[in-house]
Structures are given as structure tokens and as C-alpha cells.
Amino acid sequence: MDELMAQRVAKLDQLRDIGMAPYPTRATRTHTTAQATAIVEALPEGQDEAAGQEVTVAGRIVARRDMGKATFIDLLDGSGRIQVLLRKNQLSEQLYDALRLVDLGDFIGVTGTPMRTRTGQPTVGATAWVMLTKALHAPPEKYHGLTDPELRQRQRYLDLMANEETRERFLARSKVVAGIRRFLENRGFIEVETPVLQELAGGAAARPFVTHYNALAEDRFLRISLELHLKRLLIGGFERVFELGRIFRNEGLGAKYNPEFTMLETYEAYADYISVMEMVEDMVSTVAKEAFGRSVFTFRDHEIDLSPPWRRITFHDALREYGDLELDEFPTEDTLRDELKRRGVEVPPGAGYGKLADEAMSHYVEPNLIQPTFLLDYPVELSPLAKRKPENPRLVERFEAFIGGFEAGNAYTELNDPIDQRARFEEQLRLRAQGDEEAELVDEDFLFALEHGMPPTGGFGMGIDRLLMILTGQPTIREVILFPQLRSVKD
Questions:
Q1: Which of 77, 157, 176, 389 has the most CB atoms at less than 10 Å from its CB?
Q2: Residue 318, by phi and psi: left (phi above 0), alpha (psi -120 to 50) or beta?
Q3: Taking the complete model, does pTM exceed 0.85, yes or no?
Q4: d(Cα 254, Cα 5) in Å, to the nearest integer?
Q5: Which CATH class is domain 159-310+371-479?
């Protein structure tokens, strides 16, 4: 125990000695600090006290000023901050003397009269106070400036305690998620929940986390996607479903990657990727306006306008425009791999044609898609769950939504032909045998379900965290996740 903590523990013992519980079982609060402030601000001109009105506020002590026979304390709660005035002539001798045992970071409750000081500051003139929680550590040294990024992310409670901007950012996140739910429910979608532990990790190209199910003596995978179980629900008869859920992908950490993240997926019967595009641009712009009151946001020095309609460009046209690469001139794995190597584009070993095309897109196209853009019509090899384009079976009806230079969403006209789906899965197995660890596995139960008939469907997935990066102007995904994954601290 360090010296400062020992001093606080000693004060804790002294509180008990004078009969004041440092961690009482009950707490009373009649008004938030914002409500108490509103009472003061509503006082008629010339009246400085809400005479006859008593409030009890509670919160963490974030500032203290001792001035002889009076002590000023600032209390912070979830609604804001208010000043408390504790005067020696208004408190019992024991209560005023016990203020010496109070430190920054402690939680107290204060009963008193709402008033305005000579400087006009809303205040509660205390007639009593009670300890609610004795903090054994001091709050961050600079209460308005905890700046070390790793400390803020590793000990988010200190970040939230010290930085109002952080609290506002995560309140905004809550508003965005609530807005998405409201938007989808207003369109007739129902929210559902699907398994996190799965027999097969399917629905996306990603490496899974593996755990062991003791009761069944079997390994299970943490889900890498919500897709295949949500499609089972359309097969079962639900026509519009969505899920907001945690996804786990055993991949690297980075500015736009966290192995555990929040995904929205929606599936709508009798829709296709064109109608999904219209829904997505409407949803994102609507939710942004509801949560922030605007549709233009600054991200990485770019002004980004989320107002519809968003730009639409095909995969092939984008490679031609940004990479001077005519994809049709390299129709095989070998020719495309050779061309990318010639250009100095790194390609993973064992990559199939779709993966190679995706690497070219990531290299040449993605960084240039700053304004909201739908990139359309991907190679079939890259999209094993999407329906082919009738006029060109080498392509599928798929789009990815890009904002700020990275992918924020992905959608298909969903493949509902079980014969074609099985062939696609088998091609994924070939790629896995070549060394592509992210290739899809064959999910026999999903294929069996699909054989019972799934209506024509438009599906969409979006990373909530990446959207929040755009909306809050944060350069890394860790700044929009309350508890991001970080390397363990070792002695």
C-alpha cells in the first residue's frame, strides 16, 4: 500500500470511529445536479435562493476549495456538475469537522437549498451531508486532461472520470445504437439473438477463436458473423430480422481492427442489394442527424457528407479508375498474381482469384473512397454467399459501403440456390487446402435449411464501431470501444 492510499485508509477508519459509514447500504437522491441547477436558473430575477425548497444531490467530488469557515465542493453526477457550499454555521460541528476526512474522488450526498452565489453560480447551500463512498485512490492528476492513450483505454474508468469528451463520445454511441434499432423497427424489422458459440464459424472470411465446451466434450467457435443463423430465420418464416451483436475474429489489432467488435446485420425477404443500398444510406444519414443534429462530419481532415444519395461505382470501374488495372485482362489466378507482383502489391500465399482481386482493391481503391460510396459487383470467387448477376455470372450482386477510406458495411443479394451454394462452399474448401485460413467452411445444417427454400433476400452487415469512428472523428477503433482488446500488462 502506497503512502497516499494509506492516508485515505486512515481517514476511512476515522469516519467509522465517528459513526459515519464510509460505504452505507442506502443512498438518497431527490434531484440530479442538472435538475438542481435548473431550479436555480428558474429563479426570478433578484431572487438568489429557492427558499423553502430542499434538494438532495449526490455525486463524485471533483473539486474542493476551503475558505476558512466555508468549504466549496463541486459534485459530478451523470447529468452534470454543481457547486455545493458547506458553511460552518449551517452544519453541525461534527459534520463540518468531518469534512477534513473528505478527498477528491469520494462520493457524498448533500441536502440543502438551491441558491445562486454572488458570482451567479448555481449552488446547493448544504444543511447536511453524508459519505456515500470513500475512494482509496486519488482521481487522475489532471482532472480535465488524462492524455495517455493506452492508460485511457486500459483503465477506461479513469478516462470517463477525467475526460468529459470521452463520456460524451460513449453517450453518443448509445444514441446511435438506439437510433439504428428505432429506424429498423419502424421499417418492420424484428430484433433477434443468435448463438455466440457455434459448431462452425461461418458467414465471413475470418479466423475464429476456439473454445472448449466441457459439457459436450466438443470444441466450439466464437462467431465471426451473424449471417447464417439469421438466414435460417428467414427460411423459418420471419421476413425482416436484424441483430446487433458482438463478433469475434482472431485477427490483428490496428487502427480499424479490434478482435471483438459490434456488428449490425439485417435480412429482408423480397429485397435485393439495390433496395438495401437505399435503406443503408437512409439509415446512416437519419441516425446521424438524430444523434448529432447534422449530416456532415470531420474525419481525418476530411469533411464527409452522409446525405443520400451516395456514390455508386462498380468494382471493375474503381480498379480501372484508381489503379489503372483492367481486371478482365487477368482472368486467372496466375495471371492476376503475376500482375500484382509486377506492380509491387503484396499478395498472401495461397490466395485465390477473389482474394487477389480484393488485395488489388484494398491497395488502389479503398484509400480513395472518402465520401460515402457503394462499391458494386464483386468477383464471384470473393463472395461465396451472394447471388450471381444474371448478365455476368462471373460477378455477384454485392456491395461494400466505404466511408473515410475504409469499409464500413457489406451487403448481398443473398444466394438462395442450395446447389450453387454447396458448389461455392466446396470451392472455399479448395482454397482452404491451398492455405487460405479465412476461407469458408461447409455448413451442412445451413445447406439443409436452404434446401427447404429461402425467399429472395437482401442482406446487410455493418461494423458499428467503424461507423462511430466517422461520426465522432476518432482515428482509431479503440477510442469508440469502451473496453478494447489490449496486450496484457506483465510484471
A1: 176
A2: alpha
A3: yes
A4: 36
A5: alpha beta
Angle between helices 164-186 and 273-292 (to 10 degrees): 140
**Does CATH place domain 3-139 in 2.40.50.140?**
yes
Task: Give Cβ neighbours of residue 198 (< 8 Å, ≥ 6 apart).
Answer: 220, 221, 222, 223, 229
Tens of each residue's pLDDT in the chain, 491 residues: 789 999 999 999 999 999 999 999 999 999 999 999 999 999 998 899 998 899 999 999 999 999 989 999 999 999 999 999 999 999 999 999 999 999 999 999 999 999 999 999 999 999 999 999 999 998 887 544 567 788 888 889 888 888 889 999 999 999 999 999 999 999 999 999 999 999 988 888 788 999 999 999 999 999 999 999 999 999 999 999 999 999 999 988 888 999 999 999 999 999 999 999 999 999 999 999 999 999 999 999 999 999 999 999 999 999 999 999 999 999 999 999 999 999 999 988 878 898 899 999 999 999 999 999 999 999 998 888 899 999 999 999 999 999 999 999 999 999 999 999 999 888 888 877 777 777 777 899 999 999 999 999 999 999 999 999 999 999 999 999 999 988 887 75
Domain layout of the chain by residue ranges = 3-139, 159-310+371-479
Q: Which three cell numbers stand for residue 57?
A: 444531490
- For residue 82, list its beta bridge partners: 75
| Residue 31 backbone dihedrals phi, psi, to 5 degrees | -140, 145
